[in-house]
Amino acid sequence: PCLLRLKPTGRERTMWRGWWVLACVASLADGAFYLPGVAPKSYKTREKVPLFVNKVTSTKTQLPYAYYDLPFCKPKRPKAASENLGEVLEGDMIKSSLYEIEMKVPDGCKILCKKNHNKVEMKLFRSMIDDEYRIDWIVDNLPGAMKNEQYGYVTRGFPIGFSIAPPLENMKPKHYLYNHVRIVLSYNEDPEQFSGSRIVGLQIIPFSINHMWDRLEDFSEATTTLSTCNEMNPAVNDPGNFQSIEEADEVVYTYDVKWIPSDLTWSNRWDVYLLGNPDDEIHYFSIVNSLMIVLFLTGVVAMIMLRTLRRDISTYNEMQTLEEAQEESGWKLVHGDVFRAPECSPMLLSVLAGTGVQIFAMALSTMMFAMLGFLSPANRGGLLTALLLLFVFMGSFAGYYAARLYKLFGGKEGKRN
After folding, report:
1. 348 and 298 in a common domain
2. Residues 261 and 346 in one domain
3. How does the record classify its membrane topology (predicted)?
4. Section 43-60 average pLDDT
């Protein structure tokens, strides 16, 4: 610890004291802290790792659904996870699930449940597949993602199913449901730094399998053995055995759990989510193109204004008589109106200006906190919560600026402002 002898004697001692404080803070940098909600968690071998389900979203419809609004396997009483203000406003609906995962314990083709889907439920599945809905799962605060092996980037969530275009135009496409998932978890171990294992990756690989079993026996999640996949024969996507959802049918939901050791540290586990899709380069090009057009048009307008002002100034310099000098023309006709108070609704103008100051200060403060690392993507809802709190706090600056501007306009009702 740094010990300071504070002696309030003069400006120089105050300055040196400030430098000592900065030096102490720098010397204690190794004792960095974690923000609330984003601290690493170490798991012991065979310790239970909860899997939470979140909302089902679509970039096509922009209309989210709760996971259990769909006819998936559901606990008797799903427990809702505690959420902050930002998560609630973002529409997160995080709840517990039936999936059982233990640290470093692999599972092969474990039965989750069997559902007898009717025609209405199958129609709902087909509609959501056409609308490109994706399922969001969470393990150790990491969102589930599918990895594109060709390009090396990941997409958050995984689809409910898929459809195959028909060979003929007058035929309808066939829809298939992803009823088996392989949960691939990466973990990191460093006995010198911490005990146990830390989860650093979550990959979801979906499969569509029309499961087969001995139907002469009573079906049980614990005792029934499937012939389509088991611990010895892992699940595969067989085009001849996809789980169709065109008609009412029994669907067995299963899952695998696979653990992979990784050298990736816990602090860098979000990097894979920040890698952009190659298609995003098109958006960057569009943004740069629009920015260049705006700058070009701004330059053209600035050059026209500059030439106009130069022409007016040269005209004023060439005036010979006093009468000509007294005759105002060009931009001088309005030079006195620039600092004139508005005659109509000065209070409204000052309030709008204060609101602009409030929004600008909120955005600037948010960017500063983000650059300092306080708004980590691991802290769900943190960005939206910070925006709301800063917007309320910056209201004091907005009120001061609006009142000062209203007083500058000569307003008589400052208390109302």
Report:
1. no
2. no
3. Multi-pass membrane protein
4. 94
